[in-house]
Amino acid sequence: MDALIRRAISDKRIVEFMYMGYPRIAEPHIYGKKDGALQVLAYQIGGGSSKGGLPEWRRFNLPKMLDLRLNVAFFPGQRKYHAAHSSWDEKYLTVDL
Q1: What domain range is 31 assigned to?
Q2: What is the Cα–Cα distance from 49 to 33, expressed in whole angstroms?
Q3: How many structural domains is the chain composed of?
Q4: How far is Cα 46 from Cα 13, in angstroms, rounded to an integer?
Q5: Contact 54/79 with Cβ under 8 angstroms?
Q6: Is 89 within 8 Å of 33 (Cβ atoms)?
Q7: What whole-number distance in Å separates Cα of residue 34 and Cα of residue 48?
Q8: How much is the pTM?
């Protein structure tokens, strides 16, 4: 899964996966560690969520991202994210401008 999320971020590929019982379609922007957990900050553009409308920024715990796969579509590049999403213990990979 590590290699797949790295490829998605490097290639700016949309990903699809199941998370907390909902299908998700998202643009992954940052892969790193926060509070000891491997996480992905992504701009969710489709699928479902228990936390409100879309599109929206979401942090996902990588081990809970089930059936992760690359979509055939690409996204144009880095979007501006909220300052609240800037806090990381370590960043492993981010989307280039």
Answers
A1: 2-74
A2: 23
A3: 1
A4: 14
A5: no
A6: yes
A7: 24
A8: 0.93
Residues 6+ away with beta carbon under 8 Å from 3: none
Tokens 């949309």, residue located: 14
| Interatomic CA distance for residues 54 and 37, integer angstroms | 24
Q: How far, in Å, CA of 72 to CA of 14, rounded?
A: 7
**Which residue from 80, 26, 31, 24 is spatially nearest to 50, judged by alpha carbons?**
24
For residue 91, is it within any domain?
no
What's the average pLDDT block by block, 10 residues per block, for the chain (97 residues)? Answer: 96 97 97 96 95 92 97 92 82 89
Token pair in block for residue 69:
């796969």
Residues 6+ apart with CB under 8 A from 50: 20, 22
Evaluate the omega torsion of the peptide bond into residue 63 and state whether it is cis, within 30 degrees of 0.
Answer: no
